Amino acid sequence: MLEALLRDKAQISICGQITFGGIAQPEYWIEYEKSRTAAGRDILDQKSGVPESYSWNVLSKLFERSIFSDLRFPEGHLLEDTAIIHRIFLPVKTVSILGIRMYGKLIRQSSILGSIDPEKKFRESMFAFNDRASYYREMNDAELEERALFEKTASKAIYYLHCEKNNMLDVLIDIPAEDRPSLHDLKELFSYYFPRRQNKKPVEGRKRIVLHIGQTKTGTTAIQAFLRKNYKLLEAQGICFYQPVEFAVERFRNAWFTTFSILKEQESFSDELLYSKLMLEKWLFGEYAKCFHAILMSDEAGWTSGIKNNHFWSALRRYYESIFGEDIDFKIIISLRRQDDWLYSNWKEHIRMLGIPERRDFRTYLRDMQNDNMIDYHYGLSLIREAFGKDNIIVIPYAANVKENGIVDSFCDLAGVTTDESFVFPSSRINSSITGENALAMLAINQRVVSCNVDRKKIKRAAGLLSDLYPETERHYPLPREERDQLLDYYREGNRAVAREYIGCDELFDYEIGDYKVLTPDRDRDIEKAKKLIEFAAILPAQDGFKRNDK
């Protein structure tokens, strides 16, 4: 961080955070985006793309000493860094942003912030927001002042919901009038986020909710991207594809906040602020969606969450009924992929996500998935059936070679969406889990400590070079044909039961996928190959690109 600060002639340098115990170990120093510089104001306005958690505290930052010549943290206050960070950043011309997670942040429930009374925490946040707004006004920055006042309104709305949930509305009387949360704050937030909806009347009558729950690796992102791109055209058909507010990173998976709410509810909430944010999202969603006769919600985590957590599906049903009443027609859409194809595709996805190193070999991974019932489709569907009934479940068999528009078109037909030439379909993307990116190469890279000066583009280039060096592994499958057949035989009867009960045919999948080549691995050859791959990966940190090693 010091090198970056000196190199960029900056006054502040920032790195990414990892929330866990202790100091980040070098193996986690993964460069997830390109390092760059930005003005301090851009960071306050989030224009630099730095996550908010990096902007409003002093963690993971290195400051030039001169910044604090006339600045002091406010005494006698919690959240003291969020109450001063705006005064630190606004005058700064250059901030060096390192796209590397190398700061370990330890969260303890026994800490001051973890155990403090929510009312005191709210009052402290009001102190910070008021100082922020007044400082921006003093600096004649109307845009940032408006942002600070909006964030204050959001904080007031969240605390109002917290007080309402806990029958604590009487405590609001003791809060100064200008900071007192009210129902008006909720309505103001709604009109800000959804200006087209604020004067629209609710649609009376029975609601239709379509829940698209996965399975992962079956084109879910393509469907979600299509729905998000065309949400205005969907609205014209009386169909709502809600755009979450708090969980912006998961906006493609627009049902993620409902899934997260239920999982946290079952764990029993300890974080009241998080719970209140989820309540705010629920309120905004309800106000928005009640103006439509049909609602589309999509989150592939639904399938895995329902298997791992008891009573998840009944809780999900109660969640929607608490918003819209019991007069709802549910449709649960799930695409199931052949067990062996799904396992391999999902395993490779874990390998490609270099920020979360996948250190299991395929057989260990297979055992874990079997122990968790992730590929026992008949069992998973029986849990959904208990909560929603068999007639409300739609099962789509997925093939590895299906085309993107075919996935989207099939979903639209089942969800009751009428498309025409005005709809924008997702552009074709290379999905490495389908096209056969060299998983062995990525595993070799992922198993070793990746230098912090190597970005993702270089790693992807390396994987491409490795695939070129060893093209015979492009369609390499980690299980021999005999073991694959044994795996499929184990689940065959359950798959047939799914086909008979939900589709009306004898077989759920075509067990002979013609264009999917299967190679039986040779252990000695693969061990030697893995050594060469790791040897090749060892030269990745070279600053001047990739050099062929003579060895």
Describe this structure in words.
- The structure is a single chain.
- With 551 residues, the chain is α/β, with parallel strands linked by helices.
- It contains 23 helices and nine strands.
- Helix 7 (142-165) crosses helix 8 (183-193), helix 7 packs across helix 12 and helix 20 packs across helix 23.
- The two termini are 35 Å apart.
Strand order of the largest sheet: 6-7-5-8-9
How many extended strands? 9
**Helix/strand/pairing category:** alpha/beta
Total number of helical segments?
Answer: 23
Through-space gap between termini? 35 Å
Largest sheet, strands/sense/barrel: 5 strands, parallel
CA radius of gyration is 26 Å
Fraction of residues in β-strands: 5-15%
Q: Given the C-alpha coordinates, what overall shape results?
A: globular
What average pLDDT do the residues reach?
A: 80
Pick out its properties.
9 strands; disordered C terminus; 23 helices; 551 residues; 10% strand; 5-stranded parallel sheet; alpha/beta; 4-stranded mixed sheet
